[in-house]
Automatic annotation (TrEMBL), chains A, B, C, D, E, F, G, H, I, J:
Catalytic residue positions: R102, E105, S128
Gene3D superfamilies, A to Z: Cyanate lyase, C-terminal domain, lambda repressor-like DNA-binding domains
Source species: Agaricus bisporus var. burnettii (strain JB137-S8 / ATCC MYA-4627 / FGSC 10392)
Keywords carried by this UniProt record: Lyase
Gene behind the chain: cyn1
Function: Catalyzes the reaction of cyanate with bicarbonate to produce ammonia and carbon dioxide.
InterPro entries in the record: Cyanase, Cyanate_lyase_C, Cyanate_lyase_C_sf, CYNS_N, Lambda_DNA-bd_dom_sf
Family indicated by similarity: Belongs to the cyanase family.
Leader peptide range in chain numbering: none
Enzyme class: lyase
Protein name: Cyanate hydratase
Length: 161, 161, 161, 161, 161, 161, 161, 161, 161, 161
């Protein structure tokens, strides 16, 4: 049975056409992002980001991923190869999808407290969202399993000149 | 030397006046949120949330915190006691402060990939931002210490009726 | 112990000053909205709406409510008496508070399906939000009690002229 | 006579193409959402949500619904089968359609009173819009029939950590 | 000479394709909305609303209007027949077209005074925009003819429960 | 019994302080806008507009109105006398109050049809919202009295140069 | 060499397709707006407005302009002939193009002073943007030539009724 | 009789307090902007801009203007003297006041045509809103006097580097 | 291997189709903007601006650039030749891409301080963004190379008239 | 003569009250930011940022700056001492002041080209706005002096995990 990922709706309509091709191929294979990630030794969230054009595969990674998904690598290399750079940031803001909105709600409700604790522990600066790693884990819990989202970003102190 | 936390500027202008009093008292004592948190057996991020009126102290906690900070508990109980309920969500959106914006940028850039991985691991549902715990840790790193932000929320499957 | 309801923060800052006085008096008495409602034979949600200046008490109701709450009725009658009309609609949109946001999310996610079913059952028209009654009930449930929100509004067919 | 549901206009333009196909097939059969719902033992509002890609059919349900509507199940399974996850939240905000706007107006006018009553009856927490059921009933009334919209959602108390 | 009404520009791009076909057919015949309205015994403004998918023709009206405009009724019945419900509200807000903006300006400038007078004359409630009739008349005036726009809507008193 | 019109809430907070004084004086006298209007030979809607600083009294009218309302004319003349010009347009947009929103909804739903009929009857131009008169009448109706809102504005043809 | 005016980008994507045809034909001929304007005895700014569908040619003007630009008049008459009315207002707001933004900046910076002077010289009313003429002239200046933009609009006093 | 210019309402609430003092003093004297302008040899529109803190008086001009208006120059020099720089741009956007909106409408409707003509006459560049002069004149006309607004700005060609 | 630059996604979807052709040709050749720039003696940032339709090549430059990139010059001259003028300003605001957002953040955080220093050094006026040159340099640094962005714009003093 | 910097207007109304005191003291002394900066060995732009609460002085710097400006250091230390952290990002967006808008325009017009060149020279990553230095220089030029704004920020490559 074929699996289609319509490319004309949000957020894919904003992205290079190869993105829906990659997602379709992955669906056809019935693979998880983690399975794709293992092909190139990366994390599943990072690979998901790359599938949504929010991170950049190397040409070598693109070839390996395409091959693993039975997809000719030519279109991928042509569209999101070395000459291409991600145009990051997708979807409406504020997000309307409840999964995304809950993340946004975390910023609304806990953003200021998090900022206060970061300053207390590190001083004047920020948590980098560039030099950062993001993980999503499933933690078993008798009262209902839990999503554990970890954002591990370098602290960058403000320059003073 | 006195420490003032002006109550008329963002985000405190949106909050009960006791909030700036609590922050001032904490500054006067020179305490961290973690020190306040230990008084009532809670986490520092949760206490910071409560100081910014984004979480609700019990009356008993309010008394202990007030006492620990050399603040009469009457104003606290009067303003944010049992009869009061948080009006959550503070600050402008999109946030302009770079610390807050980086969290918001995480939603813009990694929100869709996180959603994709959550669905893959859990099915159709969300990570609760109500039954959730948030921690901010400092991880030593020779290339620069890192902020490790963990959001641990219960997975809630969508009802089907 | 006194109970204060600061009038300078959202949404009270948008409302006649008597609103925070009424809420304070109610907190001082330790009454529920339902207890206040019984004084004048109304529903608790409607009374809450009137306390937030979203519905209009009659002069007689204002007198009875003030008396029951040990509040002189003069200020109430002076501010929100017969000559006053509600200026409805409060709080930011989209709402940032999670309780309010969930109601808003219901419109985002289920609004179109609800519209489709209303048309199917009633034809071309709307559910009135003027000739309507709203109730909030607590339903016991072993897996966690449930909020049952009922909106009962007259169907108004579109005029054709 | 054929019935067309143009897929290029709001909100269908935001949704997988199968959505307009399902709505067309239902129109062709002259069925109500309730009739479709009975095929799979679900409620009409939930089925309407699934037709608008705001809820997720199981593969089995998709097959039954397609068959009942004389539609080949292949396209449905290909587009909104197991590999697909709803991207929830449709239509403009604030809504411009009067049926949808009235729901939104309920949030503007009665949202804060509802929040106040929920807190009074349940404490600090929210009504879940994930573990919730929504019904639309027609209540006969000599002065004009009424729409009775019921939202039955689990109360979720705020975690304190 | 043919008359084309391009369907890909605002507000027609938001509407069922039949709308531009109806407007084209009317232009080809050189008819006014009033002439179309007389065919089905309705007012010209209501018919214009129906041509812009803001009101709903009965199947019988659609057949008569199609026939009168030398248009096969099949497409009309297929697109905006019994199974279709208007998705009301069109064009950008605030409107940019000066004709529409002047109506919007009336709300900005005279809306509050109109509200004050309505309350004074009717009490707490609204003028229905569902049970309402709208007319546009031309009144001769030596200093320049005048547009007389009349909105005649039922007063709906607020329910109190 | 005194009647207070708090000046610090919307829309009065945007207006000269004399506005709430005028509204208070009118409330104290128990007068309608029509009664005030008769003092100076004007219409009630226009007088309401002037009370909300959306129209400009002459100095003579201000004196007569102040006197009729037992208000010293000095403050009125000082604040909104000859040297003052209205800064028109009040309240949030889109309006949240249901009375005002219904007028706004008329623009959303019927604005384009009204524009179409105006062009058909008058050609390329607009209905003036400057050279216009607005009336609000109560029309008795056994099924419920009706609000008849009339906007009578000069047609202004577009200049061609 | 051909000259193409792509019709799918802003602001042409909002306009009838004939607009890009007219602009292309003008470019092919190498004419200025002034040369086109002389064909029908109008001003160049007005003709530019008509080319961007912001003003309405008469059928006769359309024929003359089409003929002068070696364009068959049929498409023009079909699309923007007698049955068509401009839908005015184009481009994003605030404008992003620096030429347009400077005009917008004039409103931001000098709008209030201009209003103050208009009221001083004319009383309570507005400068009509309907009965108005706009010119753009080049004035030689040794320090750099200057653009002289003149807006000549009828003063319209506010009606008082 | 005193003339008050309340400083707490838009746009004065955004401006240095001296602005309302200057406007009050001018009102008290009964002067026009032109009369003030003659004191320092400037144009009335420029002086109005300076009164609304949108242009900068020299210290000498401030002294002369204060003296002419019987105002001590100390407050003016203290608030908007040499150390002060205008923070330009006032009022809401889009403007709600009809006088200001008409200017804004000119940008919406005629902005693109004006841009097209500027490029045709001058090439790639802009009309400066910094090196510009703005005048408002009254032109007598038997059909109604006209406002002639002239914006005379230097053409600035785009740098190419 | 072919290199494709999809023209239907942001910001290219807003630009003349030739833009993606130029970017594709450059990618196919494997050239930098600097290499293209040397062909016509311009800076790389300016050439990048021209490739994104934010600056205007002369016809001669277009021919040279097309030839150097093995592209027929006809399409370029046809689309963005002499008759074409840039419609400047691209991408969403606030920008969501982190590279662009950092520039925007510079305005939010350092804009007011930069304004203060410009006024101190130059008086009342602005830094021209028309008569300006922008460079991007790479500065080697043992702690991590640095981007040096220089904006060199003419100071324009405010006219006083 | 005293110099006042009113603290209740934008952007100072958003900032700790000490900010207007510091700016007033600097104005009273007649110092430039550069003169203040020399007291603590910093750059003038950085000091201006600190005066507008967009950067953080050390306690020692605060003491030296206060002393140099004849200001008691107590208020400064109390308000923006060690316990305080900047809440960065000030003023409206998009900015309305022309000096600030020109910087914003640089992002709109040249942001995408700058991004393209940064990627070409550095790969996938951003220019840090945290580890960055900003300078404003005056460059003499016979055709008009020029503002040279330099932003020197560390390149941060995107993490891949």
């Amino acid at each position: 049975m074929s699996q289609a990922v319509p490319s004309e709706i949000s957020p894919l309509a904003q992205l290079p056409p190869i993105c829906s091709k990659l997602l379709e191929a992955k669906a056809r294979k019935g693979w998880t992002f983690d399975q794709v990630a293992k092909v190139i030794g990366k994390d599943e969230v990072w690979v998901a980001a790359a599938f949504y054009a929010q991170a950049k595969f190397t040409a070598d990674e693109l070839r390996k991923v395409s091959e693993a998904l039975d997809l000719p690598s030519a279109q991928a290399l042509s569209e999101i190869g070395d000459h291409w750079w991600p145009n990051r940031g997708i979807g409406p803001t504020p997000p309307t999808d409840p999964v995304l909105y809950r993340l946004y709600e975390a910023v609304l409700v806990y953003g200021t407290p998090i900022k206060a604790v970061i300053h207390e522990k590190f001083g004047d600066g920020i948590m980098s969202m560039i030099d950062c790693k993001i993980n999503v884990d499933r933690k078993a819990d008798p009262k209902g399993d839990r999503v554990v989202l970890t954002i591990d970003g370098k602290f960058l102190p403000y320059a003073r000149w």
